[in-house]
């Protein structure tokens, strides 16, 4: 069952490793619009999205938006943390990335897909969930709408 709109941000604990910071408590993100992004090194449609996320981080971070990536392995080979770190370096992912090899965070979010995007408002409530290849324009519109509502 997917998370319902206005649900509170689930716990972000249980990651097997953290890259560029972490662990993160959802309470640390209160007061900020937050994008939580699920991806996997074996996901072919995830990789073209990563440069856009970097652009958004540069454009939106000064406006208070926070970014958290969750690496959700889809197969045994995806659990190699060295490969995840190499992908984070290759795609210059500068925001905090949780490596979720036991699917603790994935399960808390009731997430099944990569790429997947969860946008939370400043109160920590889910305002958008989307997954798939062509969802970035809707994700960006939601970020803009939540920032404009300030």
Overall average residue pLDDT: 96
Number of helices: 5
**Unreliable runs, pLDDT <50, ≥5 residues?**
none
Q: Report the CATH C-level class.
A: Alpha Beta
Write the H/E string, N to C: EHEHEHEHEEH
Instruction: Identify the quaternary structure here.
Output: single chain
CATH-defined fold name: Glutaredoxin
Pfam family, one: Redoxin
InterPro entries: Redoxin (IPR013740), Thioredoxin-like_sf (IPR036249), Thioredoxin_domain (IPR013766), Thioredoxin_ResA/DsbE_sf (IPR050553)
Protein name: Thioredoxin domain-containing protein
GO molecular function: oxidoreductase activity
How would you characterize this protein structure?
The chain has 150 residues and is of the alpha/beta class. The protein contains 5 helices and 6 strands, in the order βαβαβαβαββα. Strand 3, helix 3 and strand 4 (96-99) form a beta-alpha-beta unit. It is globular, with a radius of gyration of 14 Å. The protein has a 6-stranded mixed β-sheet, covered by helices on one side. The chain has a single domain (17-148), classed as Glutaredoxin (3-Layer(aba) Sandwich), CATH 3.40.30.10.
